[in-house]
Write a structure and sequence with these properties.
The protein is an alpha+beta fold. The chain has ten helices and four strands. It has two domains: 3-196, no CATH class; 201-272, Alpha-Beta Plaits (2-Layer Sandwich), CATH 3.30.70. A four-stranded antiparallel sheet has the order 2-3-1-4, covered by helices on one side.
């Protein structure tokens, strides 16, 4: 068995495990207390309520099928083949766990918290392998070009929230919508942790008349610093801008350092979703 084949098998095994975990999370935590998953799975929950003869898993497949047909040309066959496998396995996993065991309802708080953690863990495992379970993510990708001003992530979140609100109106429980929202937030947070790990950091831009001293102090803290030549549009003065990736736990020390050296320094701080390279994470072929 060559390396590529072994890697594909490993990837599909992880995806399968992630799908099974998502199915377990739904049947153990969400479904018994009627929490909504949001997205297409949430719509499948609603449809199953009105047509119980068709399972939630089958409804999920039926809802996703048109999306995969539309997206085939736009996203490419390689991505969709693996995503199609993921969508089918996770949909059937919903029904598989329901056939194996009948889970008892938990407390709403426990269900929403542990449901969000396990669902986020399973979904994160799937996304780390460069695939998707379809549904909200795929729909957001397809309609994003026709809706300006919204990112794919925000668009997907809006779709999830709308489904949760519809779910709460069908089952007549505002508290269900609130707990489902809590669970959704937790699951998104866990997905970020699983997909990006601990490689998140802050990206800092520093403009100061004492750039050299600040750079020296940062280097002594074993931080990488890059000087970018820039020119002020108003003054026309040329001065370097310091660029530095900083771990969150080091952020306070860096801010204190800059204040000590130059209290008038212009300091920009922004989130870096993932930082790879020396001192941070390792590079991977995975697009996520």
């Amino acid at each position: 068995m060559n390396k590529d084949t072994a890697e594909k098998i490993r990837s599909y095994l992880i995806v399968t495990l992630g799908c099974l975990l998502m199915g377990f999370s739904f049947n153990c935590f969400y479904h018994p207390i009627m929490l909504s998953l949001g997205g297409f799975s949430g719509i499948a929950q609603i449809l199953n309520h009105f047509v119980p003869s068709i399972s939630i898993g089958i409804f999920s497949i039926l809802l996703n099928a048109p999306l995969f047909i539309i997206a085939w040309r736009k996203l490419g066959a390689r991505f969709l083949v693996k995503s199609l496998y993921t969508m089918i396995v996770v949909s059937l996993s919903f029904d598989l766990w329901a056939m194996i065991y009948s889970f008892k309802p938990l407390d709403l708080i426990l269900g929403s918290v542990y449901g969000g953690v396990t669902l986020g863990l399973g979904l994160g495992m799937v996304l780390r392998e460069g695939t998707s379970s379809g549904g909200t993510d795929l729909l957001a990708v397809l309609i994003r070009p026709y809706i300006g001003g919204l990112s794919i992530g925000n668009l997907g979140l809006i779709i999830d929230i709308v489904v949760i609100l519809i779910h709460s109106s069908v089952f007549r429980g505002l508290d269900l919508a609130m707990y489902s929202g809590v669970s959704l937030f937790i699951s998104y947070s866990v997905v970020d942790l699983v997909v990006y790990g601990k490689n998140t950091a802050k990206l800092t831009y520093i403009i100061s008349s004492k750039n050299d001293e600040i750079a020296d102090r940062l280097l002594k803290m074993n931080m990488g610093v890059t000087k970018i030549e820039a020119e002020g549009a108003y003054t026309g003065t040329s001065r370097p801008v310091l660029l530095c990736a900083v771990r969150k736990r080091e952020m306070l020390a860096v801010k204190k350092l800059i204040k000590e050296v130059d209290d008038n320094a212009f300091f920009i701080l922004c989130d870096a979703t993932e930082v790879l390279g020396e001192g941070f994470g390792t590079h991977s072929d995975n697009p996520l």
